[in-house]
Amino acid sequence: MSYQFHSVTTTQRLLLTLSGLLAVALLLFVGLPLWGGTARLHPLRHVADAPAPPPTMVGGKRLIILDHADVLSHDQDMHPDIVILTGNVRLRHGSWIMTCDSANLNEMTNSFDAFGHVQILEGDSVSITAGMMIYDGMAALAELHDNVILTKNVTTLFTESLYYDRNQKVAYYDNFGTLADSVNTLTSIYGEYNTSSDEALFQNQVHLENDRFTLDTDILHYNTATSICRIVSPTVIETTDSVTINTDRGFYNTDTEQSILLDRSLVTHPDGTMTGDSILYDKKRQICQAYYDVVIDNQEDKATYFGDYGYLDQGNGYTYATGRAYVMDYSEEDTLYMSAEIMEGIKRNLPPPPGATDSLEVKYTKGYHDVRLYRKDIQGIGDSVHYFSLDSLMKLFGNPILWNDSTQLKGDTIYAHLANDTIDHAFAWPNASSVRWIDSVKQDRVKADTIQAYFREGTLDHAFYRSNVESRYYLIQEKAKHYYALAQVRNPQMDVYIVDDKLDHILWHGKAEGTIHPIQDLTDELRQMSGAEWHGDKRPLSPEDVIPDRTAPLISTDSLSTLQDPNSKMGKGFDGLAAWQAFYKEYQQALEKPKPAEAKKTAAADTTAMAVEPLSVYIRRPLESDTSSVQSLADSLQSYMHLLPLHSWDSYLDRDNRAPSTTSPSIGILRRSNSSDASSRSDESSKLPKAPTPKPTPVPAQPPTTPAEPTESK
Q1: Whether pLDDT at 38 is above 50
Q2: What average pLDDT does the structure give for the chain?
Q3: Within a domain: residue 279?
């Protein structure tokens, strides 16, 4: 037996039933005598006047309520518990409102199946459309199929089959889906989307793309409100401007393109690569920072920087490394190794020279504090170094020492020019000295105010000594190969020429005074010369003598939980994460202060400016000013502002902030002629200022056996 009602709702059905019962009751009681002569109303009359609403809760569970259907039908024999709803169906369950073309409603199980143009509205933000749906009202679980579209604000999820848990506010699919918001489009085989927290999880063939980059991985967490990805599996990010990120773990803000990359991630850009145990990368600003065992390879400039902290400003051509830092410069055939507490790489475009249209690109490397360098033809130490790749000029400051083969050059400052993959000439001043190693007992020594040394094929060829020259050199009998005396000479200027690594001849300019000491009469005091000592024990003999010891393990605490807890205690020693937190805390404070130019004017009145703790030594770079002098508060604040690595440093053109040096300006370095004979090489001495003395004459390397004091000696 089946019944069919048209345009009947559940409320109408109840009213009809109550009306029928009321009519029967009136027929039964009509005409009965009134008890006690007083009319008494039957309670059913009150029911007809105010019908009770249908229940909405059963056993603590909300019931599905039918608001409307054009046709309601029921088949008692085939489906006794199901009411078939057809035409403009509208059902409610809690905050859900569902409309469809037709539905099968089971009031016993509190569930229904919906078909055709299914649409669900939940609050003001979430809506779902599908071709059909199976809904369990007791479990509050929906299963949707056929072109399912879930929308929340600007986020839309597309799939063919979707499961939605209303209790957890989680929608998930397992047969491919697409999620799109105002920033990204993500696709995967499996996905979950929490409409309450805006968190999404994607698994299996995950692909994210927008107009700036693509991301591919196997597991990805994504927040649609913040547009931040949490990476937990091997991931490749490729940008439209040829930047590639390889990482296994970290965070990536797809809107700002700022990222935290852990587990030795790799950033590859058009100029090179950067890696480290943890990396902070700002793609839009082209700024990258790395911590622990950092490697910054600038393939365009052919230089690789190493350290425990690294900073790269790709847009401004600036590289910074510290903490067991060193550099490998492979721009020449022979690799140059340089180490220091702080290493910097700087690249600048200078205005075109006169008569040219193209700008001039200048590339140079700087090292500060405890500098050591090694190349097969030269080795050196000092306090700081500047290496200019454009003209292969190396500047050493802070009592540097430079070695080449058997020659040692020393001074307060040394300039060394490299050409054809070897040293070409060097200039030391003031308090300069040179030592030529013969053996462990004998060394030729010369000291002067300035020294110009010229090299041929990587060995000393000739040298010019100027002002207050003092020399001690050994005399040899060529045929017997026997050293027989030590010459001790003082004079204003001297030119020395070397052939086959042996003293060929000397030119003395001005009055020369000296003594010849027989070899058997020599004492340690005569063999040595104050200010011209041999420092072979400090000489780097291999790249391993330059590269800092990296065998000591570093304590790393860059876990995700630690990363999210700014109050967590880090391990002892250098910690990249702690440095990152300190840096950005101070950077934010610096942004809130006036600009450097304005700060210099107002700092005198700012008594709290220096309350900020200084940056970690692993981030801080040396002040450009003389740290030994007492600075005013304004100068201190000015210097502090420039400690931030985000302020790219440019001292190459800034004459007010040049690297500190106690030396005098260079008077120029003269290049020798291409001829290799001694007479041609000696012409170089005529280009230098001399004392007003008669024209010098060449003298052999073996002076006479008796002391002589003429202006020109043999």
Answers
A1: no
A2: 74
A3: no
> What residues contact 44, with CB distance under 8 A and at least 6 apart?
21, 22, 25
Is the pLDDT score of 430 beyond 70? yes
User: Contact at 8 Å (CB) between 382 and 400?
Assistant: yes
What are the two backbone dihedrals, phi and then psi, of residue 690, each rounded to the nearest 5 degrees?
Answer: -130, 165
Per-residue pLDDT band for 594 (boundaries 50, 70, 90) equals: low
Considering the domain boundaries, does residue 137 fall inside one?
Answer: no
**Residue 79 pLDDT level (bands cut at 50, 70, 90):** confident
CA dist list (Å): 714 to 477, 488, 500, 683, 700: 15, 14, 22, 19, 7
Which residues does residue 515 pair with via DSSP β-bridges, in sequence order? 488
Residue ending a domain, among 241, 270, 299, is 270
pLDDT value at residue 589: 58
- Spatial CB neighbours of 221, under 8 Å, sequence gap ≥ 6: 199, 200, 201, 202, 229, 230, 231, 232
Residue 189 has pLDDT above 90, yes or no: yes
Structure tokens at 632: 């005013």
Pairing of strands 244-247, 235-239: antiparallel
Domain match, 14 and 104 both: yes
**How many Cβ atoms sit within 10 Å of the Cβ of residue 515?**
15
Burial of 260 (0-12, 13-18, 19+ CB in 10 A): buried
625 in any annotated domain: no
- Least confidently predicted of 82-96, 238-252, 280-294: 280-294
Q: Strands of 478-520 (E only): list them.
A: 482-499, 502-509, 513-518
| Whole-angstrom distance, CA of residue 632 vs CA of residue 635 | 5
Give the pLDDT score at 649. 27
In angstroms, the CA 79 to CA 701 distance is 123
Residue 663 has pLDDT above 50, yes or no: no
Give CA–CA dist 555/574, Å, rounded: 8
Q: Above 60 in pLDDT, residue 620?
A: no
Burial 27-46 (b: 16+ CB within 10 A, else e): eeeeeeeeeeeeeeeeebee
pTM metric for this prediction: 0.69
The helix (H) or strand (E) run that includes residue 600 is helix 596-602
Distance CA 313, CA 290 (A): 12
Give me the domain span that covers residue 450.
Answer: 432-530+680-700
- Cα dihedral: 41, 43, 49, 51 (round 10): 180
3-state secondary structure string, 624-663? Answer: CCCCCCCCCHHHHHHHHHCCCCCCCCCCCCCHHHCCCCCC
For residue 171, what are the β-bridge partners? Answer: 164, 193
598 pLDDT more than 50: no
Given a cut of 90, is residue 20 above it in pLDDT? no
Query: What average pLDDT does this structure show over 76-95?
Result: 90
| 415, 446 contact by CB (below 8 A) | no
As for how many domains the chain has, the answer is 4
